[in-house]
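Figure 2 data, in text form.
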Amino acid sequence: MRRNRNVKILATLGPASNTRESIEKLFRAGADVFRINMSHTKHELLRELVGHVRAIEADTGRPIGILADLQGPKLRIGTFPGGPIMLVVGQRFTLHLNPVTGDQTQVQLPHKEILSALQPGARLLLDDGRISLMVDEATPEHAVTTVEIGGKLSDRKGVNVPDTQLPIPALTEKDRADLAAAVEADVDWIALSFVQTPADVAEAKKLVMGRAGVMAKIEKPQALDHLDAIMEIADGIMIARGDLGVELPLEDVPGRQKQINRAARKAGKPVVVATQMLESMITAPAPTRAEVSDVATAVFEGADAVMLSAESAAGAWPVEAVATMNKVAERVEGEPFYRSIVEAQRAEPEPTAADAITAAAHQIAENLNVAAIVTYTASGATAIRASRERPNVPILALSPVLKTARRLAIGWGLHCVVVEEATELEGMVDQACKIAYREGFAKPGQRVIVICGVPLGTPGATNMLRVALVGRAID
């Protein structure tokens, strides 16, 4: 099950893809990691989906990653008993903390945190940004606004507050319960929605206690103000362009996508580009040219992974969507100028032994034309550092820890293999050569680079590089 590309594909599971048969089809079409959206998934179904993925993993012998995406705080207005209303540009509209009868002039906003934080001049966006209100007067009990962009407004539409940092934790009580259930079900990644500050990520990591990686979703402008600090704490980053595109001007999103992607690559943290990548394939068997270009842009940027949401979860063509994304990624990575673009964005190695070793492996791989770089890693740190370099040869990530191999399934260029724990260096190098041959990455007579930490089994101590010859008699 070797992939012919470096970028990974995340596929969201849902009504169109929640059976074992359909999940296996998505995997064989190209999905490397499966996302479970906890906004729409009960705990019983979560455990069932994890069981399906693990069964497929056992059948295929390849580690598969699972990401549980937490809902986060959902901010919504109240209801309109008389039916939807039409807001007109320039009219006054008031939002009340306490219950009121929603009508043409007012509606309830049952979130004291929003009303307490609002200041005159702040914007409120309703219904995914379709309606924009400017705050004229704000108290803890109500906000008087002027309609800047009007339109039809109906019950329980979402609220975004792009100009204001809200005193709302990223983890709700539902999220805490979902997180506990996801960790208990043995997922590999927890995606944290609506991150605003590093403290949001730190709280989630405290609850996870190292049992899964924590991925911070960047979808609030406030997170961009703390991007470096969030990057330092988080294990991975998701560029969630849906809400980010609501709270930022649309024309700002491409630039912020590049900013976040490059910051994640510099920090050596896996980065996922998400939302509306092949949106038209929810209903159509083929994407638009613009969507193909969008996927290609993320691949050219060297993102670790690209993600499908409703396309694979609820669309009419889930397998075709994964197959299309797979074909686009393969084609882009085969372009003659792909390497030069990826290399141009390469970050300088940090002044550590581990970064020096992996940077050297990248350089030696080019000079000696080796077949592959093989990393031996228990924690995953060595493989992630090798991936950060974006070398022009495949990376085999060998790990004696199944959970580590599953978590690494999201990393750029990493082909993960679970191995027996090595006890001595020569045996580990021999094992690396045999697996490189067995997995189809190297032929007898070719060379591979082996990097690891010595003494073996020492976490985070990447300090050895060996150029090894793949033998002619491999059993």
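Caption note: The longest strand covers residues 131-138.
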